[in-house]
Design brief:
Largest sheet: 8 strands, mixed
Number of helices: 15
Helix content: 40-55%
Structural class: alpha/beta
Number of strands: 8
Shape: globular
């Protein structure tokens, strides 16, 4: 019996250790990241941009976001904003129609962000240099396009901007914002530091127009950003993370939205892993390290689940065999230190750490979602904004 327990103990520890080591490695890498000087925009060629706002039932936030964007310090004839209005109120559409934008009004039987993007591209006759995808709640600074253009002139075909929290109205929003910054550190900044592609995040994304036009119709899931990543990495297109180009995003502020959002992410992670695995032999043969790394990412255990399961197993082993628990406590310590390193210095304060009292209940919702995973579920789970 003790032999069986020891084998199970080692196997479970090894599985979780793989995820912790991955996080720890890139957290340490981020320490050596050096901020590059701001781009000079002097005498740069000015690219043209199509800005897409997929908006499903986003009446509360879409007008403010669009009006803010229209204040760009960039030639008005070099960018066009397009809102894909799906299931929005007539009054909202009327207000939007009075702005200098393109408004696509539609009502899909089965809505999704991918379908909205496909519709917009199919109904865009003019060609642009780049396409930018923003969520309906995203707000950017007036120099957003100016900075993005400077990055585009360096030849990048895929750019992920720095999405960061625009609200910190309660514990959940603060923790959600901290989690996103940890992701920015590990999966974006640190990856670029070692020469790997940044992860995409769903909004604040910029792509070469022709590339996106030819690939958007291939999207077929509720996690279009992961699908786009897969296509980019298969074609060995590098994804650049621009830390200094900010996109302010509304963080979830209630537990129901948090649970719904994380369930969508977990389903997407499982679906993406199953899609990417068959291509691994070819990726290995062709030396496609970025694709291999992205596939490994899909197999990682989410951090919030690790932060619950590792202490639980540590306590169980402490009661059963104290010596065996040492490796579990060590693993938990490594994970905590790694996450602390990954949190930006400006957020290492009592304001953020004081919100950790909300974490246990959020983590339980994550564990609950594990029993609701469905590899075939491609339904669009909407996260409401502006509540």
């Amino acid at each position: 019996m003790w032999t069986a327990i020891h084998i199970i103990d080692i196997v479970l520890w090894g599985i979780m250790a793989l995820s912790v080591v991955y996080v720890a490695f890139f957290a340490l890498v981020s320490v050596f990241h050096r901020k590059k000087k701001e781009y000079s925009t002097y005498q740069l060629k000015q690219s043209s941009f199509l800005i897409l706002y997929p908006a499903y039932k986003e009446d509360a936030v879409i007008q403010h976001s669009v009006r803010q964007f229209l204040e760009q310090n960039y030639p008005k004839d070099l960018f066009q904003v397009a809102v894909i209005s799906d299931h929005m109120k007539d009054d909202t559409n009327l207000q939007l129609s009075q702005l200098p934008i393109t408004l696509h009004t539609l009502t899909f039987d089965k809505s999704s962000k991918a379908r909205a993007l496909q519709y917009a591209m199919q109904h865009t006759e003019k060609s642009y240099d780049y396409v930018v995808i923003l969520d309906a709640d995203n707000v950017v600074l007036p120099d957003f396009l100016e900075q993005l253009n400077a990055s585009c002139q360096k030849g990048y075909q895929a750019i992920q901007c720095h999405r960061c929290a625009k609200n910190s109205d309660n514990n959940i929003a603060v923790l959600d914002g901290a989690s996103e910054e940890i992701n920015n550190t590990i999966f974006r900044k640190a990856h670029n530091t070692v020469g790997l592609s940044s992860a995409l995040i769903g909004s604040g994304m910029c792509f070469a127009f022709e590339w996106f036009k030819h690939h958007v119709d291939l999207l077929n899931s509720a996690v279009e950003d992961r699908e786009l990543e897969s296509h980019l990495l298969q074609e060995k297109v590098y994804i650049k993370f621009e830390e200094n180009i900010h996109v302010f995003d509304e963080k979830v502020s209630n537990r129901d939205n948090f649970e719904r959002q994380r369930l969508r992410w977990l389903n997407g992670q499982l679906q993406t892993l199953l899609i990417m695995l068959p291509n691994i032999p070819h990726a290995i043969a062709s030396g496609n390290i970025n694709y291999i790394d992205k596939t490994i990412q899909q197999a990682l255990i989410p951090r919030s689940i690790l932060l619950v399961l590792i202490p639980i197993f540590s306590l169980i082993m402490l009661l059963l065999a104290p010596v065996w628990s040492i490796k579990w406590w060590t693993l938990f310590l490594v994970l905590c230190i790694s996450l602390y390193i990954a949190i930006p210095a400006r957020m290492r304060n009592s304001t953020v750490f004081g919100k950790l009292t909300s974490f246990p209940r959020l983590a339980l919702k994550m564990l609950k979602n594990l029993f609701r995973l469905n590899r075939n579920n491609k339904d669009f789970l909407h996260t409401t904004h502006g509540e």
